[in-house]
Amino acid sequence: MKFFLAKITVFGICLLLIFGILAMIPSTPLRLGYLDGFLQKYEIAMAIKQPKIVVVGGSSVAFGIDSEMMESKLNMPVVNMGLHAQLGLSFPLEQVKEVVKRGDVVLLAPEYLLGKPTKRMLQKISRYYPRANNYYSLTLAEVARSNIEDTHQRVLRKIKESIRNVLTDKEVNIYAEDVFNSHGDMIGHLNEPQTMHPFTKMELEYRYWEGIEKINSFCKIMQDSGVTVYYSFPPYLDAAYNINEKIVAKIYEDLSKGLTIPILDQPKDIVYPRDLFYDTFYHLNQKGKEKRTQALILLLEKQLAADQLL
């Protein structure tokens, strides 16, 4: 009996060692779907030689800007660098530093109280974009955990895809394909019906946003490089605004006092009804995107003219 238990113990230890070693080796990932837009947007921005407008934020920017319309009205190339709130604020700011040059304009429009990035998201992105490793550091344990989680998600994805393939009514997943246009705008949802998530948490928890200091530090570097930076609030569902109106007002007060760059609008200016949103209280549909972009064009025209950049 003791010999049998010893063999089982050794076998178990060997399995743990094998899985541990495998977890430390980043496998070549499958396509990341929506997240593939990260590198696509970078390449679009790098290919533009003349002064351009770069819009930065999370998915509210990806869904909420019609770059072609803005480019046509302002006579400047426009790149939509928005992707995912789980990348946090510091990460996209670091990426933008690599794609801008003297004469460019950066429009920051992050979600409210945009926080720290998730380690799993950073790990996945860095496999496609090695320079991303310069933006953060992970411990060996965090890398191992991320690889295990990624393998688990890959297996689940393949199972779901296999099941979906045998169904006559296939589920539409707008986040699984190449869904960005040549400006970096999210377009995969434009012909799809509204699918607002019913259980999305809408309550904000107030804190003095650490992003203010990060933005000011970023803007100092941009100013020294001849790049102009503006700030705009994100589009927001009226129901979410009503719940968080006092907190949003406090955030606006903090930003107004703390930021060293022009703020183009006020939160209440971009509060829209449900029929202008797609699936969350930050993701605009086609009509919402057009309304948001038209408003931004007017604000940018005024500010750019004041700064003698038009």
Question: Mind explaining what this structure looks like?
Answer:
The chain is α/β, with parallel strands linked by helices. The chain has helices at 2-24, 37-47, 59-64, 67-74, 90-99, 119-128, 140-165, 211-224, 238-258, 286-306, and strands at residues 53-56, 78-80, 105-108, 228-231, 236-237, 271-272. It has a single domain (30-306), classed as Rossmann fold (3-Layer(aba) Sandwich), CATH 3.40.50. The chain has a 4-stranded parallel beta sheet. A two-stranded parallel ribbon has the order 5-6. α1 (2-24) crosses α7 (140-165) and α4 (67-74) packs parallel to α10 (286-306). It is globular. Mean pLDDT is 82; it is low at 21-30.
Please give a handful of descriptors for the protein shown.
globular, 310 residues, Rossmann fold, 4-stranded parallel β-sheet, alpha/beta
SSE layout:
Elements: H1 2-24, H2 37-47, E1 53-56, H3 59-64, H4 67-74, E2 78-80, H5 90-99, E3 105-108, H6 119-128, H7 140-165, H8 211-224, E4 228-231, E5 236-237, H9 238-258, E6 271-272, H10 286-306
Parallel strand pairs: 1-2, 1-3, 3-4, 5-6
Helix pairs in contact: 1-7, 4-10, 5-8, 6-7
